[in-house]
Design a protein that fits this description.
Blueprint lengths: L2 H46 L4 H9 L3 H16 L12 H38 L4 H29 L5
Helix pairs in contact: 1-2, 1-3, 1-4, 2-4, 3-4, 3-5, 4-5
């Protein structure tokens, strides 16, 4: 293998690992922000009425799913390229960039949707604080934001698993 080929293979692996890292990190950061915002609101409501703890906790946890989705995409990508399992594969630069791009929907949509889901959860926690009987309706608002995280998960999942079948 020439030095140029070796460098290109190394760069392919670097981009694939970077994509996996971004999926886990950005979605995780978004979840941390969203869960933190909702947690602050939930703590305030629970201080006033401890009986609302379970309802506010459920609403607080919703923005945390994007971090899980990002981690899932990272695991699948790292598994596909052999980092998990201990047998790294040879990756061309083009294929490494494909893995990188395949991880981006979950990274970007995961981060943004988690933050906005946290904000929707804050509003829903406010709703539950005044009208605990409306918990079911309050769940729908942040759950609607989850739809876009699931769409990003789906496209990244299909793309990451599809890259392995590409011969470049």
């Amino acid at each position: 293998m020439s030095v140029t080929t070796s460098l290109m293979s190394t760069m392919g692996m670097v981009f694939a690992i970077l994509g996996a890292a971004l999926a886990a990190c950005l979605a995780g950061v978004g979840s941390a922000i969203g869960v933190g915002l909702a947690g602050q609101a939930a703590a305030g409501v629970t201080t006033e009425d401890p009986s609302k703890f379970s309802k506010t906790l459920v609403l607080q946890l919703l923005p945390g799913t994007q971090g899980i989705y990002g981690l899932l995409i990272a695991f699948i990508c790292l598994s596909q390229i052999g980092i998990i399992g201990g047998s790294p594969v040879e990756l061309s630069l083009a294929k490494g960039l494909m893995y990188f791009c395949a991880c981006l929907p979950m990274a970007i949509a995961g981060m943004i949707s988690a933050i906005h889901q946290g904000k929707a959860s804050v509003a829903s926690i406010g709703m539950v604080s005044k009208r605990p009987d409306q918990f079911g309706k309050a769940m729908i608002f942040p759950a609607m934001v989850e739809t876009y995280a699931i769409l990003a998960l789906l496209i990244s999942l299909l793309a990451v698993t599809g890259v392995s079948g590409v011969n470049i």
